[in-house]
């Protein structure tokens, strides 16, 4: 690969035929950091958290009387004696909820996937768009969960994009307070065992099960900051979970606990509910945190954001993403030092990546993930907008549905996850559909050198020259080794 081809494909999301090639690849990448627009028109036009919360609250407000009526009409004894009693009305209510969730998934999830795709297709700062997607996968949630299906994209739009060119600590704090993360990892309902609310519930409703949830605290330590098996213990996870109690969402629940907790604020906004916060000081990784309320968890997050183990964890993942599945130790050390010396300033880290010779090795360092391959293929054909449902269907077929990884660890960033024979055959099938959207008369033989300047192999040239039709040549170009790897 030439330096220009590396800048376009390894750092960016592939060339567009209507955008000029960079004359100075490293300067071109560096300039993108300052030029990046975190809220381009397609992102600004996407549904907002307030809009989604308002619609959901209004719909549930209409549904609530039906559910209350059903509860009054079907006493528990009747349900126990005759499980089918009153099922008609309840089934109708459940059907309405399912229809709403389906509409939410279709209208909100797909619309946000479309906005993400269109922003990346048309961007003149593709290096920064790649970093947005990197961080969204680092702070992964899943839109498969009922409570996050309609807001999965908002974590990227509201917590990642505004901070991708800022400090890691600011991004960390925005992510851990975002409703999508709080709901995905069940933090919004975590209640301190000795909090005022817990004591009141124990007195008046002893059979009600409430308590501490450690999911978010564990994933912050294990995935978002320090890394697996580093400098923390299970006791630290529990203590951090206690410090995090009180992080919740306005309008999450209209029941007595929510009223007692005093979770005011606009529906869908982050709020700190002191009444469910576990009182007392915490000792986490040997450090004492005596702050009260929200300031306690904030102090922990601030320390985690600049911890040496966090620097090493982030540096390793970035080196793997840009230099190969086995991160070069010298590059990891260089990025780690840049992170620590700058206090987690991400542009400083990005400039260090650009300056690292390991990221510019001429051999193709990475096998593209399905998202990377699909995006670079559509950019190669000059597409500027693709129907959202086609993108969601394509990514589902390719095995990497947007914002739907199988775990909080996100999608794998190694070839072994994506380079199997069946996965490659799916790309061949999808490539044949993508080329149907290309403008008439596109010549793959003329296009290929623009996409891979000074990097097109003679074997690929021969394959394109011997294709039976222009359409077949385009499809072959999209599955050529140069397109599959970066």
Which terms summarize this structure?
single chain; 486 residues; mainly alpha; two-stranded antiparallel sheet; 4 strands; 2% strand
How would you characterize this protein structure?
With 486 residues, the protein is mainly alpha-helical. It contains 25 helices and 4 strands. It has helices spanning 3-11, 25-35, 41-44, 49-73, 76-81, 87-122, 126-138, 152-160, 168-176, 179-184, 196-204, 215-224, 234-244, 256-261, 294-305, 308-323, 329-342, 346-355, 370-380, 388-398, 421-434, 444-451, 458-465, 470-478, 481-484, and strands spanning 247-249, 270-272, 282-284, 287-289. Helix 12 packs across helix 13. The protein is globular and about 80 Å long.
Order of helices and strands: HHHHHHHHHHHHHEHEEEHHHHHHHHHHH
Q: How would you describe the shape?
A: globular
Q: Gyration radius, to the nearest Å?
A: 25 Å
Mean pLDDT: 90
Beta-strand share of residues: under 5%
Strand arrangement, major sheet: 1-2
Report the total helices: 25
Helix content: 55-70%
Kindly report the oligomeric state of this protein. single chain
Number of strands: 4
Q: State the end-to-end CA separation.
A: 9 Å
- The helix/strand class is mainly alpha
Strand and helix layout:
Blueprint: H1 3-11, H2 25-35, H3 41-44, H4 49-73, H5 76-81, H6 87-122, H7 126-138, H8 152-160, H9 168-176, H10 179-184, H11 196-204, H12 215-224, H13 234-244, E1 247-249, H14 256-261, E2 270-272, E3 282-284, E4 287-289, H15 294-305, H16 308-323, H17 329-342, H18 346-355, H19 370-380, H20 388-398, H21 421-434, H22 444-451, H23 458-465, H24 470-478, H25 481-484
Helix pairs in contact: 1-2, 2-18, 4-6, 6-19, 6-20, 8-9, 9-15, 12-13, 16-17, 17-18, 21-24, 23-24
């Amino acid at each position: 690969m030439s330096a220009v081809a590396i800048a376009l494909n390894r750092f960016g999301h592939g060339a567009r035929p209507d955008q000029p090639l960079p004359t100075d690849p490293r300067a071109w990448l560096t300039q993108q950091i300052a030029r990046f627009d975190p809220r381009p028109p397609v992102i600004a036009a996407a549904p907002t958290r307030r809009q989604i919360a308002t619609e959901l609250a209004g719909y549930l407000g209409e549904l609530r009387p039906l559910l209350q009526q059903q509860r009054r009409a079907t006493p528990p004894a009747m349900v126990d004696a005759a499980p089918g009693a009153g099922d008609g009305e309840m089934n109708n209510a459940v059907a309405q909820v399912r229809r709403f969730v389906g509409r939410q998934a279709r209208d909100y999830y797909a619309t946000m996937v479309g906005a993400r795709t269109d922003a990346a297709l048309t961007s003149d700062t593709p290096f920064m768009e790649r970093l947005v997607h990197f961080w969204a996968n680092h702070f992964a949630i899943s839109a498969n969960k009922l409570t996050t299906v309609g807001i999965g994209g908002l974590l990227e739009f509201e917590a990642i994009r505004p901070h991708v060119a800022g400090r890691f600590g600011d991004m960390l704090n925005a992510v851990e307070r975002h409703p999508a993360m709080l709901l995905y990892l069940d933090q919004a309902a975590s209640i301190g065992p000795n909090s005022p609310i817990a004591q009141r519930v124990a007195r008046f409703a002893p059979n009600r099960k409430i308590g501490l949830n450690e999911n978010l605290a564990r994933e912050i330590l294990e995935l978002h900051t320090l890394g697996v098996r580093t400098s923390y213990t299970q006791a630290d996870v529990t203590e951090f979970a206690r410090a995090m109690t009180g992080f919740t969402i306005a309008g999450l629940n209209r029941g007595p606990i929510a009223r007692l907790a005093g979770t005011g604020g606009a529906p869908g906004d982050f709020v700190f509910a002191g009444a469910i916060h576990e009182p007392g000081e915490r000792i986490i990784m040997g450090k004492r945190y005596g702050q009260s309320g929200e300031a306690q968890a904030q102090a922990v997050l601030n320390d985690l954001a600049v911890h040496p183990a966090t620097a090493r964890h982030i540096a390793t993942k970035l080196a793997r993403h840009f230099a190969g599945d086995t991160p070069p130790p010298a590059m990891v050390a260089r990025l780690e030092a840049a992170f620590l010396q700058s206090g987690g300033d991400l542009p400083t880290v990005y400039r260090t990546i650009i300056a690292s010779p390991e990221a510019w090795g001429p051999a193709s360092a990475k096998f593209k993930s399905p998202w990377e391959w699909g995006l670079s293929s559509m950019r190669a054909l000059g597409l500027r907008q693709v129907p959202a449902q086609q993108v969601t269907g394509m990514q589902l077929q390719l095995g990497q549905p947007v914002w739907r990884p199988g775990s909080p660890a996100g999608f794998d960033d190694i070839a072994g996850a994506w380079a199997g024979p069946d996965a490659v055959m799916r790309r061949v099938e999808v490539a044949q559909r993508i080329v149907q959207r290309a403008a008439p008369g596109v010549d793959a033989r003329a296009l290929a050198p623009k996409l891979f300047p000074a990097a097109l192999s003679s074997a690929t040239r021969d394959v394109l020259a011997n294709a039976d039709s222009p359409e077949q040549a385009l499809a072959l170009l999209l599955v050529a080794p140069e397109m599959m790897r970066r």
